[in-house]
Amino acid sequence: MLVLLCMSIRRHYWTVAKQLSRLYSGPHFPKQMVRSATPDELDASKPTAAVLVAAFGGLGIHTVQKILTTFNGYYKNLVFISVGVVDSGGFKGADSIVNLQENTEATLCRFVELAHRLGVPAAYRMAIGTDAVAEAERICLQVAGEFSEVTFFSGKIIFQRERWYQRLLHNETGLSIQKRLQWAGLTMVVLPARVLG
Questions:
Q1: How is the chain split among helix, strand and coil, in percent rounded to 5?
Q2: What is the C-alpha to C-alpha distance for residues 129 and 109, in angstroms, rounded to an integer?
Q3: Distance CA 90, CA 92 (A)
Q4: Alpha-carbon distance 176 to 181, whole Å?
Q5: Start-to-end CA span in the chain (Å)
């Protein structure tokens, strides 16, 4: 029974990942948004969208796309935020921390490159820790001190027919961070990514 349960959970994650990659397999940006010119430098006084991302892929790309199309040029800067989470299962010494840091930074660099291809000034902030929510809150507060007009964003997978187990399998990290930032007087928007099932 336990093996069947594990196989079912793995199949669920695989199905969701496949649907996300199919829905958002590449940046779906209007052609007029894609620019070849080098973007300007970050201007901390201009409206900034700070995007919390975990990996370079469907959900993160979709979140960037939604910010740029829904708010239609309002945000002049993008700051990408990510936390590399150290867990007991993946920790195998100091090399593991170095690899985690390198992978987190590589992911963020890909998002910055995407923003630059769209002509939007971008930067990233990252941390490594054991508590994703606490570390993300700390970085967000630093970013809020750095940029005078910042709104925080994250993506959340939503299902057409939500079932009880989906909340257990897909963490509510974005919503937890949102509550903490709202308590601190900051604005955070959670943008949905629709998945069938």
A1: 50, 20, 30
A2: 19
A3: 6
A4: 9
A5: 23
Yes or no: domain 46-195 corresponds to CATH 3.40.50.620: yes
Question: Which H/E stretch holds residue 24?
Answer: none
* Cβ 196 vs Cβ 19: under 8 Å: yes
Model pTM score: 0.80
Question: Which run of H or E residues covers position 103?
Answer: helix 94-117
Helix pair 132-146, 173-183: axis angle to 10 deg: 50
CA dist 81 and 52 (Å) reads 5
103-121 burial by CB neighbour count: b if 16+ within 10 A, else e? ebeebbebbbebbbebebb
Summarize pLDDT for 1-24 with one digit per residue, the tens. Answer: 888 888 887 886 677 667 666 655
| pLDDT above 50 (res 32) | no
Q: Structure tokens of 43?
A: 């201007």
Distance CA 109, CA 32 (A): 23
